[in-house]
Amino acid sequence: MEIKDRIIAGAVELFTRYGVRSVSMDDIARQLSISKKTIYQYFKDKDEIVTMAVQAHLKRERKEYDEIFECSHDAVEELSKVCTCMRKDFKDMNPSLLFDLQKYHPNAWNVWLQFKNEHIKNQIVNNLKRGIKEGYFRKEIDPEFLATLRVEQVQLVFDKQIFPADRFDLKDTQMKLFDHFVHGVVTEKGKMLYMKYLEKEKTINQNSI
Amino acid sequence: MEIKDRIIAGAVELFTRYGVRSVSMDDIARQLSISKKTIYQYFKDKDEIVTMAVQAHLKRERKEYDEIFECSHDAVEELSKVCTCMRKDFKDMNPSLLFDLQKYHPNAWNVWLQFKNEHIKNQIVNNLKRGIKEGYFRKEIDPEFLATLRVEQVQLVFDKQIFPADRFDLKDTQMKLFDHFVHGVVTEKGKMLYMKYLEKEKTINQNSI
């Protein structure tokens, strides 16, 4: 891996775990056992690292989710795989992450907003339309509205004013939110299939540990 | 009705229909066929009218919802009656209403926030706990989390950046949101009862027209 990519990967790891605000250039240098001078050879300032770290993280996430949507047999399998992926992504994620971006790094925040409002929302709309067509999701639901609601909800859970970290663990709360969202869209047939897939995912993950 | 109460009632009507920002003291005076001078005998300024209008509106809403929660046979009947009430409340409500309060009338906004975070949230928590106990709502749900989510969702739909009025009609969108929320919490038994109550509510409302 090139040194520039190593710096970005190290930054992604630190930001995810500790939030953006509390990680300094010194921390990144220390984490990678390089000098701060080396970092500045590749990046103008911390803001540039943050933007590129967000881009790199979203690129990886996009690849991961694209694979789910390409390889699933039906809309319910998509959901069950997204569920597993989210559980992994939100584990150890610092709840300050999005707030720090919004407040201190408008460039990186805009990268996130665009990804959320275009890529993620589209994937949800497609998933919901597919599920309705397959008879697994209720035909009364409005895909465009629910996709918009869904991306906003995920972001809402990061809001510490509304969901203080001492009462609402980020990962648990995101999983509860996802569970409620899924139950709000499935038909009885879809619900039974969802439970079946979740059991299967659980077995795969237990065997891979 | 005393003149002061008439002014408040008139203001509630105008604010609900047109939003707060676009209704002037002149509009209120004209609506009630009184002079502006008369209004200023009872209120210091528009901000004071707005605060008292919000208080009066929430007091009426509280009475209406309290009756629902006192007179219902089970948690599902509560929900179906809340649904009818919401359909009526959001009809003809201007989507700018909450935004105007937040931006221009912090006192009135705080009255709303307190009502939302204490009274409404508590009623939802109680409804969810009751439904779980009665076997109509899934035992896996977390009442505290879902009540917090619910009150924030209702407010979110007023956000014109996220749900632009030309694509998302306020009443329709609120009803879709409510439908998704209910389906996310009910068991199969609860869902069947909910449908039954909705049919009953529909008949009552048709007969009362």
UniProtKB/TrEMBL annotation, chains A, B:
Q: Which GO terms describe its molecular function?
A: DNA-binding transcription factor activity; transcription cis-regulatory region binding
Which PROSITE patterns does the UniProt record give? HTH_TETR_2
**Pfam family example for this protein?**
TetR_N
Q: Where would one find the signal peptide in this protein?
A: none
Q: Source organism's superkingdom?
A: Bacteria
List all membrane-crossing ranges.
Answer: none
Write the record's keywords in alphabetical order, separated by commas.
DNA-binding, Repressor, Transcription, Transcription regulation
According to the entry, every stretch annotated as the HTH tetR-type domain falls at 1-61
**Ribosomal protein among keywords:** no
Q: Which residues bind DNA?
A: 24-43
The record's section on PANTHER family has: HTH-TYPE TRANSCRIPTIONAL REGULATOR RUTR, HTH-TYPE TRANSCRIPTIONAL REPRESSOR KSTR2
**Protein name as it appears in the record:** Transcriptional regulator, TetR family
